[in-house]
Write a structure and sequence with these properties.
Elements lengths: L3 H10 L4 H28 L5 H7 L2 H15 L2 H25 L2 E2 L7 E8 L2 E8 H36 L5 H9 L26
Antiparallel strand pairs: 1-2, 2-3
């Protein structure tokens, strides 16, 4: 049986700076949360009998197209605008995540830079990532998670308050007004990683 120390030595052979390795792990975990959060958003708009099919059987892009269709048909303008913003935000995070998860170690990494390589149609691209860039990617994916969660919560609460108002339940009016003030702002577009740059620095915006 292989000892724990031997396993650690194998990890050292990867020659990945620990901070960069931690940030890539955070990107993976945060993206999984972002992807999962869309299930609950889809649940608010799609027919209940089709939610599982839309989420589990469709690709990410097909799922976003479906969500856009249903939200534009069943939501007011401000909510539909935020659903579309959440979808665009997801696409950028999705592209960043895919670039990182489908790359391999490239040149020689250092404590400051992680060297990666990715395959493109015209050949292989080598690029270096400062730790601060990876940390920003992870943080911005988390911002997306919070935005989708707040948007989902807002829609659920506003629907409940509206139902109560229609039924003339006590306190329904003030509750609806309170919910209306909590519509989440659209976050700034996340960083987009561009492997054609030798060093991917913070500041490359969509």
């Amino acid at each position: 049986m292989e000892s724990e120390s031997a396993k650690v030595e194998h990890l050292h052979h990867l020659d990945v700076p620990p901070g960069h390795l931690h940030a890539i792990g955070a990107i993976s975990v945060n993206f999984n949360l972002l992807e999962s959060s869309f299930y609950f958003l889809i649940e608010l708009f799609a027919p209940s009998s089709a939610v599982d099919y839309f989420f589990w059987e469709l690709s990410n892009l097909e799922r976003l197209q479906m969500l856009k269709h249903f939200s534009q048909s069943n939501a007011d303008e401000e909510i539909a605008e935020r659903v579309e913003a959440a979808s665009k935000y997801f696409r950028s995070c999705f592209e960043n995540r895919n670039l990182l998860m489908h790359s391999r170690l490239g040149g020689i990494s250092s404590s400051e830079l992680l060297s990666l390589a990715t395959m493109k149609r015209r050949g292989e691209l080598l690029f270096d990532l400062p730790l601060v860039t990876l940390q920003r990617v992870a943080d911005e994916i988390w911002i997306g998670v919070e935005f989708v969660a707040r948007l989902t919560d807002y829609i659920e609460q506003s629907r409940q308050a509206l139902s109560a108002l229609i039924e003339q339940a006590p306190g329904a009016g003030p509750r609806l007004a309170q919910v209306a003030r909590s519509l989440p702002p659209i976050p700034a577009a996340p960083l987009r990683l561009d492997p054609t740059q030798k060093v991917l620095k913070v500041g490359v915006e969509i």
